[in-house]
Specification:
Number of domains: 2
Structural class: mainly alpha
Order of helices and strands: HHHHHHHHHHHHHHHHH
Shape: globular
CATH class of the largest domain: Mainly Alpha
Largest sheet: none
C-alpha cells in the first residue's frame, strides 16, 4: 500500500513537471524557430534562392535520416502512438535530438510542415525517457505519455480542456478517472507556466466572433460544407499516401529524396510564397486576410501538394499547422462562393473558416470532441455548439466510411517503406 501511494505521488510530480518541457519547447519552436523561418522566407522572396533553399534543407534532412535515425522522418505523432503501446519501443535521447534538428532545418528552409506535432513528440519523448528511468509499470507509463501530450497541446493552443480531450481521444485513449486526473494536472500546469513565459499569447483565432443562431438555410449550408470539407480531407489523405508511395518507390539514395521534394516546394513557393513554411503568418491574420476566390482556391490546392511533398519525401515536421491552414482557407473559399451563388444561405466567412478547421481536424485526426472543445475554448458562444457538432461528426463519419485512417496512424506512412 505504501509503495502504491509513493508511486502515485511520484506520477503526480511528473505530471506537474510535464508542463516545463511543454512550455519551453513550445516557446522555442513558436517564437524563435518559426520567426527565423518567416524572416528567411521573406528575405529570399523574389529571389532564385527561394527555389534552392528548401532543396538544400531537404538534402541536409536526408543526410540526417541516412546517417542518423529514420525516426526523424515525417511527423512524429505516429511514432508516439506506436511507442505508447509497449515498454520496449521508447524514444531515445538521440531520437529526440535528430527529430528536433530535422524539424528545425525543414521549417527554416521553407518546407511546408507544422510545429505542433514535433512539440508534442519532443515533450512526450522527454516524459517517455523519465518514465522508463523510474521504471513505471506500463499503465502508469502510458498515463505519463498522455500527460506530455496534454501539456504540449495546452501550451501551444492555450486551451487546457482541449489538451485534456486530445490526450484522451487521440493519444492515450484511456478515459479512466485516474488518467483524466493526471492529464488535467499536466494540461493546466503547462497552461499556467506558458502564460508566465508569454503572457497574452494567442496561437491562432485571436479575434472576436459574434454570431446568432443559424437559420434553417444556414444549417443546410453547414451540412453541405461538411461534405465539401470531407472531400478536401480525403484529397489531402490520398495525396499524402501517393507522395509517400512515389518517394518510397523512387530508386535513389535516401538523402536525395527530401531534396527533390524541397526543390518542387521551392519552385511552387517562388510563385506562391504563402504556401511555404508553417503558414503561421496567414493563420495569425486570417481575420484580416483578403484575396480573390481564385487565389484562395489555388492556395488550398498548392498547400495540400507542398505539404504532402515535404512529408512524403522524408521532410520532418508536423501536420497540424498545414491542416489548420487548409481548413481556414477552405472555409473562406466556400463562404465567398456562397456569397455569390447562394446569398440567402451563406454564413459569416470567419465562422465558416473555423468550421473548416473543425471539420478537417475531425476527419483526418479522428478527434471530433477535441475539435469542438478547442473552438469553444476560443469562442464560448452556445449557439455554435450544434453547427460545430455537425461539421465535426459528418466529416468524421464520412471519412471513416471511406476507410480513411487517422493521419497519426502509426502504420499509415510505413506501408510503402
Amino acid at each position: 500500500m505504501k509503495n502504491k501511494f509513493k508511486k502515485y505521488i511520484l506520477l503526480l510530480i511528473f505530471a506537474i513537471l510535464a508542463g516545463v518541457p511543454a512550455s519551453l519547447i513550445s516557446y522555442l519552436f513558436l517564437f524563435i524557430i518559426d520567426k527565423i523561418s518567416l524572416d528567411t522566407i521573406q528575405y529570399l522572396s523574389n529571389s532564385i534562392l527561394i527555389i534552392i533553399t528548401p532543396a538544400v534543407g531537404g538534402l541536409l534532412v536526408g543526410i540526417l535520416l541516412h546517417y542518423g535515425t529514420l525516426t526523424a522522418k515525417g511527423h512524429g505523432v505516429p511514432l508516439l502512438l506506436s511507442t505508447i503501446k509497449s515498454e520496449k519501443t521508447g524514444l531515445t535521447k538521440s531520437d529526440l535530438e535528430y527529430e528536433g534538428l530535422a524539424t528545425t532545418i525543414t521549417v527554416i528552409s521553407g518546407g511546408s510542415v507544422g510545429l505542433i506535432g514535433p512539440i508534442i513528440e519532443l515533450t512526450t519523448g522527454i516524459t517517455d525517457i523519465f518514465g522508463r528511468l523510474i521504471k513505471l509499470e506500463l499503465k502508469e507509463y502510458q498515463t505519463l505519455i498522455g500527460c506530455g501530450a496534454a501539456a504540449s497541446f495546452a501550451a501551444v493552443f492555450q486551451a487546457p480542456f482541449a489538451g485534456i480531450i486530445f490526450s484522451l481521444e487521440v493519444i492515450n485513449k484511456n478515459w479512466s478517472i485516474k488518467n483524466i486526473f493526471y492529464t488535467t494536472v499536466s494540461a493546466f500546469s503547462s497552461y499556467y507556466l506558458f502564460n508566465l513565459i508569454k503572457p497574452e499569447y494567442d496561437y491562432f483565432l485571436n479575434f472576436s466572433l459574434s454570431i446568432r443562431s443559424l437559420t434553417y438555410n444556414q444549417y443546410i449550408f453547414i451540412i453541405v460544407f461538411s461534405f465539401i470539407i470531407s472531400l478536401i480531407g480525403w484529397i489531402f489523405y490520398k495525396t499524402l499516401l501517393l507522395s509517400d508511395q512515389w518517394f518510397s518507390n523512387l530508386d535513389i539514395p535516401l538523402y536525395y529524396k527530401p531534396a527533390i521534394g524541397g526543390l518542387v516546394v521551392g519552385l511552387i513557393g517562388y510563385f506562391y510564397l504563402q504556401i511555404m513554411g508553417t503558414g503561421s503568418n496567414l493563420i495569425f491574420n486570417i481575420n484580416s486576410y483578403q484575396a480573390p476566390i481564385k487565389i484562395i482556391f489555388i492556395l488550398v490546392i498548392l498547400k495540400i501538394i507542398v505539404t504532402c511533398l515535404t512529408i512524403g519525401s522524408g521532410g520532418s515536421g508536423g501536420l497540424f499547422g498545414p491542416i489548420i491552414f487548409i481548413g481556414l482557407l477552405s472555409g473562406l473559399l466556400i463562404a465567398n462562393l456562397g456569397v455569390i451563388l447562394t446569398p440567402s444561405y451563406v454564413i459569416t466567412p470567419m465562422f465558416l473558416a473555423i468550421c473548416g478547421v473543425v471539420g478537417i481536424f475531425s476527419g483526418l485526426i479522428k478527434a471530433p470532441i477535441t475539435s469542438i472543445i478547442l473552438i469553444l475554448e476560443f469562442f464560448y458562444i452556445p449557439d455554435l455548439i450544434i453547427p460545430l457538432i455537425l461539421v465535426s461528426f459528418i466529416p468524421y463519419i464520412l471519412l471513416n466510411l471511406s476507410n480513411v485512417k487517422s493521419i497519426f496512424s502509426p502504420d499509415l506512412m510505413d506501408q510503402h517503406l
